[in-house]
Amino acid sequence: MSLADLKSALPDYAKDLKLNLGSVIGNSDLPQQQLWGTVLACAIAARSPIVLRELEPEARENLSPEAYTAAKSAAAVMAMNNVFYRTRHLLSDPEYGTLRAGLRMNVIGNPGVEKVDFELWSLAVSALNGCGMCLDSHEQVLRKADVDRETVQEAFKIASVIQAVSTTVDAEAALATA
């Protein structure tokens, strides 16, 4: 199972996705840990068993055990935070913003890897989950840490391609069994 297998699973009508998948992973300027942590966190967040099964072994191979765990932690905590903060933001009553969240998210303060890497993974998952409040928060932390816009964009580009690939391969799998 591999990136090549995932690309070959994409139908002809999704040729752009096949090319983009190869590009965002194979031609990325991100350091290996940032790249594969982003890939793993997004593969988890995209909720596609097929995509996760294909990308996880390469992510595990390219990440230290600490980074592998931290990327999974980013996907887990952002699954919660993205729903909570997106909902708080979408509600028309601003008083919800004054209430204590009361949710544990200690991993954000001590992720076990460089804070910038964890923030990048959290931003990518937030892009995939569509939480503007979390996107703004993580982007601001990254920019204050002197991460350039190209790096930030690379993370959400990976998220967008993994989401599109997940949607496509899952749809094809469902149609094949229909």
From TrEMBL:
Name of the gene: ahpD
Lineage: Bacteria, Bacillati, Actinomycetota, Actinomycetes, Kitasatosporales
Protein name: Alkyl hydroperoxide reductase AhpD
Annotated keywords: Antioxidant, Disulfide bond, Oxidoreductase, Peroxidase, Redox-active center
EC number(s) on file: 1.11.1.28
Active site: 131, 134
Top EC class for this record: oxidoreductase
Assembly description: Homotrimer.
Family, per entry: Belongs to the AhpD family.
Enzymatic reactions: N(6)-[(R)-dihydrolipoyl]-L-lysyl-[lipoyl-carrier protein] + a hydroperoxide = N(6)-[(R)-lipoyl]-L-lysyl-[lipoyl-carrier protein] + an alcohol + H2O
Residue ranges of coiled coil: none
Organism, scientific name: Streptomyces hazeniae
